[in-house]
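May I ask for a single protein's sequence together with how it folds?
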Amino acid sequence: MERKLSSIATIAALSAVLFSLWKNYGLFITVKRALFAYLVFYGIAALSVMIYKAGINNEEIDTEQSKEETVSNIGN
């Protein structure tokens, strides 16, 4: 998952560089845009991964609780 995250951020930075070169911006602006694009996309993707993993953990907890309730109901 981390590899995909890094790839997405790198593609965003590369596209920012290509766009800046196409528009004839200066070197400083190009580097600044690439860094900004990389950090923003990396942050958004990392946040998405954390939300996804939290959802999986909550689903596992709910499944375990329902199994325990079923076992306790059978015992009564």
